[in-house]
Amino acid sequence: MTPAPAARQPDGAVRVAAVGDIHLSPDCAGLLRPAFATLPECADLLLLAGDLTRHGTVDEAVVVADEVRDLGVPVVAVLGNHDYHSDQEADITRALAAAGVSVLEGQSVTFSVAGHTVGVAGAKGFCGGFAGRSAGAFGEPEMKAWVRTAHIGAERLSTALEELSADRCEVRIALTHFSPVPDTLAGEPVEIYPFLGSYLLAEAIDAVGADLAVHGHAHLGTEHGRTAGGVRVRNVAQPVIDRAFALYQLPVHGHGSGM
Amino acid sequence: MSEPATHEVEYRLARLRDRLAGDDVAELGVRVELRGAAVLLSGTVPTAARRDEILRLARIELAGLTVFDDLASASTDAPERMEELP
Ligand SMILES: [Fe+2]
Ligand SMILES: [Fe+2]
Q1: Domains in chain A, please, with CATH?
Q2: Closest alpha carbon to A111 in A161, A170, A157
């Protein structure tokens, strides 16, 4: 039986469904599938903002893959820190890709939605803190490695966003696990902000341009924020949105020279 | 029964936080805070089973202390509304 078609989106709009931090494991197989099955009626694509598994094992990734297989809308994911916990991120990526998910780490993917080109640039990103309150690459090798990892994460996002610009995408979305801004961390203890995201991600987003930035990781944070350059940021960690996914409708107006 | 010293309680809370964030539980979205002499657990976890598991652990780690449970499990329903971005 086909469900009644929901109201179509107005011409020149793209509907984006997004969720992060679903932290699935074999005991919750099937948990999100009923809600995901409604996606073809309400969204043009689904974004997964990392922390898809609990301990980062392939067994858990298979549960995630089954949850999003053959949904009828494209699925784009980045991994999160939990998905790296068991050093199986390469196999997790393969398990998701086998179910048709585009797993991005410094890459981009584009789709045609009602004749418009929609692009997603993805990278996990890393922590390190926010402008004026961040760690510096100085001192012990561990400290330098930490800060260097944050820079690499931002460079990967930047590379991916530049691909979207080169492809002349009309709607550009930056997808990360770590947060580019402190706004969407409100509710988390201020002391741990440096572990929740990095301003380097926002700097990359503002430098290259995007229409929306989506992230997860901050389970106690809030949904809405903006970069210094004015790009809207949404924290879609499942505990934050308290739904199977959040829905955003973005207008299509081609991209000019920015703001 | 004598009240445990405050610094002792502080370290017990820190140990519980470490355990929750550690290998077995891997749950980072739980707030563990003192409320008077009691301990408040709050935050949203993926399933009711995870919530029970966290409470069980907390009751072991915090034996002798009163534990207030404000943990919730996240809704897995599809959203009823779409945010229209201008
Ligand atoms: Fe998470
Ligand atoms: Fe995370």
Answers
A1: 13-251 (3.60.21.10)
A2: A170
